[in-house]
């Protein structure tokens, strides 16, 4: 059974506790796109102000919000935040370095991109080493800490907008619908057309679709400059 949603005030309790301990600038960090097999990984960090101004209307884990609600919350977060930062990691870097290493580095870069140095950093799920500040990895942090929820919205909205732009370049895949995640629609397009350069060729399902497409006589995916995309050896799979 799913856990009941936290009461609105509970979303701000973790930051309130840290502020009472003297950590006045508490940053949250989260990413979007980790589970997708196409498109970029986007990481974000955010510091919300204390008091009523930090109580962003409608704020919640981005996955629990509709697209329209996310856009509204995004605008409120940008307007109210003490500082916020977004980092985009393109597919070539993901393919070269692997998801987990790149994910942690992206979160680190997002925190480093804040123009107000935080006193404390909360991350969603994954410990992030190498930061100057004390940090805490919080399980389902985007559901229990407002600053992490705000970061999740910043990352998700940024990435969704980018996937809509990618749909204009590669309309056959309908990235505007599934945002690069595996769905029946996306799988059918991969099977029919093979992958494009915006697919993560390190993932086994993409590599299999690529090999099957080429075996049928299809062209291998091309980079934007028209050269054959150099795909890495697949070592990761989606579950």
UniProtKB/TrEMBL annotation:
Fetch the PROSITE patterns from UniProt. RNASE_H_2
- Which InterPro entries does the record associate with it? RNase_HII (IPR022898), RNase_HII/HIII (IPR001352), RNase_HII/HIII_dom (IPR024567), RNaseH-like_sf (IPR012337), RNaseH_sf (IPR036397)
Gene Ontology BP terms: DNA replication, removal of RNA primer; mismatch repair
- Documented EC number(s): 3.1.26.4
Among SUPFAM superfamilies, the record links this protein to: Ribonuclease H-like (SSF53098)
Subcellular location, in the record's words? Cytoplasm
Annotated RNase H type-2 domain ranges read 24-215
Purpose of the protein: Endonuclease that specifically degrades the RNA of RNA-DNA hybrids.
Q: Which family does it belong to?
A: Belongs to the RNase HII family.
Name of the protein in question: Ribonuclease HII
Its lineage reads: Bacteria, Bacillati, Actinomycetota, Actinomycetes, Geodermatophilales
């Amino acid at each position: 059974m799913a856990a009941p949603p936290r009461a609105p005030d509970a979303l701000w309790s973790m930051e309130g506790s840290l502020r009472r301990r003297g950590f006045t600038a508490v940053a949250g960090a989260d990413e979007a796109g980790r589970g997708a097999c196409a498109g970029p990984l986007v990481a974000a960090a955010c510091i919300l102000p204390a008091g009523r101004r930090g109580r962003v209307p409608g704020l919640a884990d981005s996955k629990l919000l509709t697209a329209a609600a996310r856009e509204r919350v995004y605008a409120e977060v940008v307007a109210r935040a003490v500082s916020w930062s977004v980092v985009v990691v393109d597919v070539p870097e993901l393919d070269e370095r692997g998801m987990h290493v790149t994910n942690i580095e992206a979160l680190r870069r997002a925190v480093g991109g804040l123009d107000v140095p935080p006193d404390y950093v909360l991350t969603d799920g994954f410990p992030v080493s190498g930061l100057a500040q004390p940090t805490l990895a919080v399980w389902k942090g985007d559901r229990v800490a407002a600053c992490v929820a705000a970061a999740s919205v910043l990352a998700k909205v940024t990435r969704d907008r980018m996937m809509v732009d990618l749909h204009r370049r590669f309309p056959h895949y309908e990235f505007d619908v599934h945002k690069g995640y595996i769905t029946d629609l996306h799988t059918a397009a991969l099977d029919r057309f093979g992958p494009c350069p915006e697919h993560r060729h390190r993932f086994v399902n993409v590599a299999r679709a690529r090999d099957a497409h080429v075996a049928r006589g299809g062209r291998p995916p091309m980079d934007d400059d028209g050269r054959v995309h150099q795909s890495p050896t697949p070592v990761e799979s989606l579950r």
